[in-house]
């Protein structure tokens, strides 16, 4: 309170002036505590004080600033103190920084399927094994496998394929697959494809001569071959080269335009070994109807059987049932007294139906 007094003669009036000082507002920093991840911003707000603010954030980016709002970030996990000042006041906020978790890893395996050879096919010699593979990030390699063992080295570039020599494995049924991997190490496996490998057999008769009166194991092999050819009756594989065997050899020689002596000489032996090399895989059976236009592995086995019997020319084991195969089937049906007239529609002549399959499966 201020009082002013004057003299009456001076006509001065006394009056009182009251001045009240407002209290200074307390400076605050909010939120008082907060948790952020590494490299993520922590935003703080100042209030109170004089209305003018400065900030100090040791270890932060940025480490200082001004204004009512301030943001900073940290690259290392830990507890940090941020201070704001206004006039003579200061306030403190605490920032707790946690490590930023890594992004979710790639856990999706590649997708892969074999494109060649086809399931159920019969192969020989060198073939191309190929596959299609894809991945949400990228395929880095495809490894082909036969019966669980690697075929060659991993193919690291698309299109994925390998040139494989089937002669290095035994004749018979084999399981083929492929494994694809991506950069994250995820593995995808192709559905298994079943294939039959048939690369013929080693010469058995070449260089040998068998004639009437011969008695040895090789004669039995010859007789079994002639039985399979439909030339010698079942049960005559005695190991003795008698008149029935001699007559069967003559028929075989006539069939292939070889001088008909009844003796298994060099030309006859070579022809027998050639046909043995076209014998279908052991255990080949026929379970479905086969007819003109069909293409599958059983057609291959049928053609190999017909080639073995000299009904179909060598090299026609394509897997496609065409006119040549149909004609050979008709010949076989006539030989076996199944049907020998009509057509494929009225009598089934040229169609591998139930009766013909039964006859084929006997051999």
Automatic annotation (TrEMBL):
<protein>
    <submittedName>
        <fullName>Peptidoglycan-binding protein</fullName>
    </submittedName>
</protein>
<feature type="domain" description="PKD">
    <location>
        <begin position="23"/>
        <end position="99"/>
    </location>
</feature>
<dbReference type="InterPro" id="IPR036365">
    <property type="entry name" value="PGBD-like_sf"/>
</dbReference>
<dbReference type="Pfam" id="PF17957">
    <property type="entry name" value="Big_7"/>
</dbReference>
<dbReference type="InterPro" id="IPR035986">
    <property type="entry name" value="PKD_dom_sf"/>
</dbReference>
<dbReference type="Pfam" id="PF01471">
    <property type="entry name" value="PG_binding_1"/>
</dbReference>
<dbReference type="InterPro" id="IPR036366">
    <property type="entry name" value="PGBDSf"/>
</dbReference>
<dbReference type="InterPro" id="IPR002477">
    <property type="entry name" value="Peptidoglycan-bd-like"/>
</dbReference>
<dbReference type="InterPro" id="IPR000601">
    <property type="entry name" value="PKD_dom"/>
</dbReference>
<dbReference type="InterPro" id="IPR013783">
    <property type="entry name" value="Ig-like_fold"/>
</dbReference>
């Amino acid at each position: 309170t201020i009082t002013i007094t004057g003299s009456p003669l001076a006509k001065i009036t006394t009056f009182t002036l009251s001045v009240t000082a407002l209290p200074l507002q307390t400076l605050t920093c909010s939120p008082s505590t907060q948790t952020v991840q590494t490299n993520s911003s922590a935003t703080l707000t100042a209030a109170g004080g004089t209305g003018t603010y400065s900030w100090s954030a040791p270890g932060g980016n940025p480490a200082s600033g001004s204004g009512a709002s301030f943001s900073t970030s940290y690259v290392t996990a830990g507890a940090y103190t941020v201070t704001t000042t206004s006039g003579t006041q200061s306030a403190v906020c605490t920032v707790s920084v946690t490590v930023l978790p890594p992004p979710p890893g790639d856990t999706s395996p590649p997708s892969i399927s074999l494109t060649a050879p086809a399931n159920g096919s019969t192969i020989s010699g060198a073939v191309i094994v190929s596959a299609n593979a894809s991945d949400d990030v990228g395929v880095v390699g495809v490894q082909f496998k036969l019966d669980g063992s690697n075929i060659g080295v991993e193919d690291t570039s698309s299109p994925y394929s390998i040139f494989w020599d089937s002669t290095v494995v035994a004749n018979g049924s084999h399981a083929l697959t492929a494994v694809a991997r991506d950069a994250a190490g995820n593995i995808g496996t192709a559905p298994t494809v079943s294939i039959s490998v048939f690369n013929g057999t080693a010469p058995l008769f070449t260089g040998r001569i068998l004639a009437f009166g011969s008695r040895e194991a090789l004669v039995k092999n010859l007789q079994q071959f002639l039985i399979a050819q439909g030339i010698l009756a079942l049960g005559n594989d005695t190991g003795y080269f008698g008149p029935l065997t001699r007559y069967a050899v003559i028929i075989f020689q006539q069939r292939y335009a070889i001088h008909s002596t009844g003796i298994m000489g060099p030309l006859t032996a070579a022809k027998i070994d050639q046909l043995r090399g076209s014998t279908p895989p052991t255990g080949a059976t026929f379970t479905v109807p086969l007819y003109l236009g069909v293409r599958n592995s059983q057609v291959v086995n049928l053609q190999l059987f017909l080639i073995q019997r000299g009904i179909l020319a060598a090299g026609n084991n394509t897997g496609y049932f065409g006119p040549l195969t149909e004609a050979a089937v008709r010949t076989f049906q006539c030989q076996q007294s199944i049907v020998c007239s009509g057509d494929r529609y009225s009598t089934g002549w040229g169609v591998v139906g139930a009766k013909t399959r039964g006859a084929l499966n006997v051999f």
